[in-house]
Give the backbone structure.
Amino acid sequence: MNTSIYDKTAKGKEEIATRKYQLAPRLRALLVLIDGRRAQEELLRNVAGLGLGASALAELVEHGYVVLATSYSSLADQPAPAEPPSAEAAVQIPEPAQIAQFQSIYDFYNKTIKSTIGLRGFTLQLKVEKASSVAELRDLRHPYIEAVQKARGSETAAALARQLDQLLGITPPA
């Protein structure tokens, strides 16, 4: 199984933000999906309906919009070293459950920020994009709930808070 994971370069991020390079709409759709977390197969499956394949991804690499990135899944597949690393060299490799939890929370934020907060959630969305751990996503809980409450009211905020707490593994007070 190919666990190649791609991430946007500075040029790719600039194209998403400004459309400076006027990338073709179909390639731009693929570029938008690239987040440094999804496997190549998933990305290509998501854009198959647009008639895009591996050659489109290769084109984005060739023109400097994306690069092959080290991923959780590729790190997890590496064999263990013969000797344990020193404390300074030890790298924390997330467990599959942590990876799944991160992806679930990340997806939750992505799906709900735009639909509930709208453009006012842009800054929050950027913080979600920059997050690289469950702890960083957990830190966004309070600002997220406040923003939803301002935009949609207490009832919607409470419902989304319950869903988010479940994903975060936060148990409600008894």
